[in-house]
Design brief:
Elements: E1 43-45, H1 51-54, E2 60-64, E3 73-78, E4 93-100, E5 103-106, H2 108-111, E6 120-124, E7 133-137, E8 154-161, E9 164-169, E10 188-192, E11 201-205, E12 214-216, E13 230-234, E14 240-241, H3 244-253, E15 255-262, E16 271-277, E17 294-297, E18 304-305, E19 331-337, E20 346-351, H4 360-366, H5 373-384, E21 390-394, E22 404-406, E23 419-425, E24 434-439, E25 449-455, E26 461-463, H6 466-469, E27 478-482, E28 491-496, E29 499-505, E30 512-518, E31 533-538, E32 541-546, E33 549-552, E34 561-566, E35 573-577, E36 586-587, E37 599-603, E38 606-610
Parallel strand pairs: 30-37
Antiparallel strand pairs: 1-29, 2-3, 3-4, 4-5, 6-7, 7-8, 8-9, 10-11, 10-33, 11-12, 13-17, 14-18, 15-16, 16-17, 19-20, 20-21, 21-22, 23-24, 24-25, 25-26, 27-28, 28-29, 30-34, 31-32, 31-35, 35-36, 37-38
């Protein structure tokens, strides 16, 4: 729970206009650089020789310190394809590029993970011994090992032999992973300490099987919606509310493309947020009643379903289209972060569209030969703006429970049909978090790539065009943010059919910044400090960041916490929450002073600066 020093107001009620809209913006926060007539792009491509070719066909990407040198590296994975004609594609393959002061270097052969029998890799210190172990996830039910055996999710403990890294299967690091209930394929995975015991737990989501949520403790029995966690509240746009029994059935019918954990303001620590895709049993169409988002908390309560698609047309600034019934619910990815600098974690949904409007001739052929144009239009209206991605600002209620307001239209979030990934980060270092959406080509209406939506001082989003962002058009929207060159801003690595590309951030370093790595273990925390938060108070504004591991399709970002400070040259104070919702924030003393313009490694014992 955020300290009262941060000005967090628990007496605000859901639905009330947010106080942030009435606040005067801090003087050090100015509008994004690209809006000031600067013709230079935000990013410029700097893809190293060989990377594009080496990563062709690899569709998943992970950021982790593979070699343990303190600099985060890049891992690109090609899932197994047992049905491929080329037998080399039957097994998974992993490419590793090591990050060094001189640049990215191919480290694949010496990494020890090139041939790990898993489609997707999650890195985390599962045994809290100081190095990064690996959770290997399968994305298909028919993946087989060299002996023909069906492969399941595995855990690999990192070690060393003759100076080289080794990864040995060790299910004791996560015993519940081997249980049959959770051996189904996974499209997303995240690590978090759900129960606050100082050990990493695993969250899985799948698009192949109904009832595909997996929440696994580090030992013992799995926890899930039918055990410790109860679904308590929903995101905006709820299509139908269920009682406990009906809600459990609806949850079992849903497909979970992404899952995340964070303290959203409830009294019991982390809540679990689901990104749901697919049909509810009552909806024979598609994308049904439980799509979009559902929130699990440790508090007892009724279950509820929420549709991600909704009847709001973003281009009409909130005007409803097509009545009250939401269409869609195809949430592909979730991003969590403090968008409005109020200390609460907000949510961005990346929703893929299934517009499927009926041409007049087809509608009359299938449904009603005598249908008028007006009747056809009334059918097409709710489909035309199906499944918009959404910005959901968290406004905790008077009881402290999370409550969300959909501000997508107010913030002018552009509509995209093929948005499959989302990110929250301050890429221009102006002190305001921006929204990045990864997009694939969909129905020929949109071009693929990453769209940068910079937050302005007016509380709106300004989407950089391809020339302003410098990213251009790519075949996929997968992207990871990491400061590869150590200059204080977040660079970008994208991954598409053509392979991986690296883009240096050319603008962020012109602003004031500070970067912090939380190096556990802190009291009651994991060594990776997952879920811990750091808040910097700068010129009356509170900037909050949280440590995360994992995401949809293996998309992960740096675990360093990057703060853009605009024109500010100092911070007023820093507050650390090692267990949000379970322990209060603690202000850092003089023995742990953070330095602006530097990369700070913060531990219980003090602060070290990374050169």
């Amino acid at each position: 729970m955020i300290s009262s020093d941060l000005g967090r107001k628990r007496d605000r009620v859901a639905g009330k206009k947010r106080a942030r809209r009435k606040k005067k913006r801090a003087d050090h926060l100015k509008d994004p650089l690209a809006t000031a007539g600067d013709s230079d792009p935000l990013f410029s491509e700097n893809t190293p020789d060989g990377l594009l070719k080496a990563t062709q066909g690899h569709s998943l990407m992970t950021v982790a310190d593979v070699d343990g040198d303190g600099l985060e590296d890049l891992v690109f994975s090609r899932p197994a394809d047992p049905g491929a004609k080329d037998k080399e594609l039957h097994a998974a393959h992993h490419v590793v590029y090591r990050n060094t002061p001189e640049g990215l270097v191919d480290y694949t052969e010496d990494s020890g993970i090139e041939d790990l029998p898993a489609d997707q890799l999650l890195f985390g210190d599962l045994d809290n011994d100081g190095d990064q172990d690996v959770v290997g996830l399968q994305r298909r039910i028919d993946n087989r090992g060299e002996g023909g055996e069906l492969l399941k999710h595995q855990v690999f403990a990192r070690g060393e032999e003759d100076g080289k890294a080794t990864y040995t299967p060790d299910q004791q690091l996560l015993p519940s992973l081997s249980e049959a209930l959770f051996s189904r394929p996974a499209i997303s995975g995240r690590l978090s300490d759900l129960d606050g015991d100082g050990k990493l737990d695993l969250m899985l989501g799948s698009n192949y099987a109904r009832g595909s949520l997996g929440l696994l403790k580090e030992a013992g029995v799995p926890v899930g919606a039918d055990a410790d966690l109860k679904q308590q509240v929903t995101l905006p746009g709820a299509a139908e509310f269920f009682g406990s029994a009906g809600g459990q059935q609806a949850l079992a019918r849903s497909q979970h493309y992404d899952v995340a954990a964070t303290d959203l303001g409830g009294p019991a620590g982390s809540e679990v947020l689901l990104g749901n895709y697919g049909v509810s049993g009552e909806d024979k169409g598609r994308n049904g009643l439980l799509g979009g988002g559902a929130l699990l908390t440790e508090q007892a309560g009724s279950l509820a379903g929420s549709a991600g698609g909704n009847p709001v047309n973003p281009k009409s600034k909130g005007k409803k289209e097509g009545g009250d019934r939401p269409f869609g619910g195809n949430t592909m990815a979730l991003a969590v972060g403090d968008l409005d600098n109020d200390g609460d974690m907000d949510v961005v949904e990346a929703n893929i569209s299934h517009r499927s409007e009926f041409p007049a001739s087809l509608y009359r052929e299938r449904f009603n030969k005598a249908a008028t144009d007006e009747e056809i239009e009334s059918t097409n209206k709710p489909r035309r703006w199906a499944d918009p991605s959404r910005i959901l600002l968290n406004e905790p209620s008077s009881t402290g429970m999370p409550s969300f307001e959909d501000v997508s239209a107010d913030w002018e979030l552009p509509y995209g049909e093929g948005e499959v990934t989302a990110n929250i980060a301050d890429v221009d270092n102006d002190g305001r978090q921006d929204v990045l959406m990864g997009q694939i080509t969909k129905y020929g209406h949109d071009e693929g790539g990453v769209k940068v939506n910079a937050q302005t001082s007016a509380g709106k989003l300004k989407m950089f065009n391809d020339e302003e962002s410098g990213l251009g058009v790519t075949s996929g929207g997968l992207h990871s943010l990491i400061d590869l060159d150590g200059d204080g801003d977040l660079d970008m690595v994208t991954l598409g059919d053509e392979g991986a590309r690296v883009f240096n951030n050319e603008k962020g370093q012109d602003k004031s910044w500070i970067a912090v790595r939380l190096q556990g273990p802190f009291s009651g925390q994991t060594r990776d400090a997952v879920g811990a938060r750091l808040t910097l108070v700068v010129g009356g504004q509170s900037l909050t960041r949280e440590v995360e591991i994992g995401g949809h399709d293996g998309q992960t970002d740096t675990r360093w916490l990057y703060f853009g400070l605009g024109d500010a040259k100092s911070i007023d104070k820093a507050l650390l929450e090692v267990a949000p919702g379970r322990a209060p924030a603690v202000e850092l003393g003089e023995d742990r002073t953070l330095t602006v313009g530097k990369r700070n490694v913060l531990s219980e014992g003090g602060v070290e600066l990374l050169d």
